[in-house]
Automatic annotation (TrEMBL):
Pfam families on file: Polysacc_deac_1
Protein keywords: Signal
Domain of life: Bacteria
The NodB homology domain, residue ranges: 34-252
Any GO BP: carbohydrate metabolic process
Name of the protein in its database record: Chitooligosaccharide deacetylase
Organism: Hymenobacter jejuensis
Extent of the signal sequence: 1-23
GO MF term (any one): hydrolase activity, acting on carbon-nitrogen (but not peptide) bonds
Record flagged with keyword Signal: yes
Amino acid sequence: MNTTRRLSLAAALLLAGPATSFAQTTSPWNNKQCAVVLTYDDAIDVDLDNAVPALDSLKLRGTFYLIGSSPVVARRLDEWRQAAKRGHELGNHALMHPCDGSLPGRSFVTPDNDLSKYTVSRAVSEARANNTLLSAIDGKTARTFAYPCGDLTIGGVKFYDQLQKDFVAARGVTGGLQTPAQVDLTNIDSYMINGQSADYLIDLVKKAQQSHTLLVFLFHGVGGGHSLNVDLKAHRQLLRYLKAHEKDIWVAPMVEVAEKIKAYQLSAGKKQG
């Protein structure tokens, strides 16, 4: 090989290096800059009245974490089924939404729904019962879990350890942006939103784009309906930004993103092994 060809080959390899690295970094995000997951907790009326129509209008899909015992599930069963048919995930937020009443600021926890009084087997059984209910609604078997109140343990034992075969992943409540390798699929980071501006929401997305990371939003009320709330206009502006930049941002339900991350981590583990 002559000197000119060697130099040309070396230049080509140098140019290909960063592109290959970038593609590997972003491959779990469908070869886009980042992934954004929009999650909505508690199965409340505004999910169906405000959030789902806003997403549908822009052909975006989200994850709705349903409490099985919520009257809004029973009363609006067909609407949840139709939402699932349009590509939204019906996630599992437990049957009774038990929270640890022994922690500070938990006066809202009733004796019947106090996770600190649960056994691990009860928590596991109720989560599985909710899966049965959700499967009856949407006909699906793959879905994700969201910890009620972000509580992970009962008597120091992580109850989700017994549920890992029942779910693709579980979402927590700790804010953070993570690369595919950093994501803990048993406790995925998320940003809980309560009153923040559209600028704040969009800035988080821009940071995820720059760092090629996963960004999960955790909403409750959208335009009311819950003490934790995001303004309708702010929510709409966020969705419009995501839609306007969809060539760079992968917006998908949690179950799809988690499946991609799981495959990525398994592949990376095999390569290291």
